[in-house]
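User: Hi! I have a protein structure encoded as tokens and I'd like to know what sequence might fold into it. I'm fairly new to this, so please keep things simple.
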């Protein structure tokens, strides 16, 4: 192909300096005494995979029914909560809850839902007859969302207020716990969990 700028292609290509000698560079790298990366042996990989499997199975399977129960055992026990006879969570709204608790109290999820339900009952909203939003802090007049007395803006505002009330309650609770800790006697042995 002719060199650009030459009409007949007789122009010479400018001379370029030769690049570094690649073989000399390879020899130089070999002399640096760097270890050559190698893949781990197959036995090492199998050993690592076996450790990962056992690490993921920290909780053994329930030992009831001659080990045929597919449920994991409770931490520190050899059986699952059902075979230990733990009662079901009483739930917060009468709907069945499948979580079993040691003492028969509410599970953490039902406790949270009950707290939110109490907050919603404490601040009742009376829906309007014409399908408009009654407003969170005063009359709004926008169209209410389906199945909700509020419009989207007022629902977000009410949730922000609810979150603020919860954060204030948690701050008071944390302060009470921090004040009670110095009064408690230190444990002679730490709890097993």
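Assistant: Happy to help. Inverse folding works backwards from shape to sequence: for each of the 193 positions I chose a residue that suits the local structure. Here it is:
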């Amino acid at each position: 192909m002719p060199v650009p700028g030459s009409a007949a292609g007789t122009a010479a290509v400018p001379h370029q300096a030769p690049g570094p000698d690649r073989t000399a560079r390879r020899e130089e790298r070999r002399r640096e005494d760097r270890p050559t990366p190698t893949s781990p042996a197959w036995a090492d990989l199998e050993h690592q995979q076996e450790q990962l499997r056992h690490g993921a199975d920290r909780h053994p399977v329930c030992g009831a029914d001659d080990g045929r129960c597919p449920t994991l055992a409770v931490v520190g026990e050899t059986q699952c909560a059902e075979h230990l006879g733990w009662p079901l969570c009483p739930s917060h709204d009468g709907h069945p809850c499948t979580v079993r608790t040691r003492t028969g109290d509410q599970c953490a999820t039902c406790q949270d839902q009950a707290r939110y339900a109490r907050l919603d009952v404490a601040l009742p909203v009376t829906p309007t007859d014409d399908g408009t939003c009654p407003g969170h802090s005063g009359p709004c007049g926008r169209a209410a969302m389906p199945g909700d007395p509020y419009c989207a803006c007022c629902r977000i505002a009410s949730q922000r207020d609810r979150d603020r009330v919860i954060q204030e309650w948690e701050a008071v609770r944390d302060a009470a716990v921090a004040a009670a800790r110095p009064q408690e006697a230190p444990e002679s042995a730490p709890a097993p969990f």
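A useful reference point when you look it over: The chain has a mean pLDDT of 76. Feel free to ask if any position seems puzzling.
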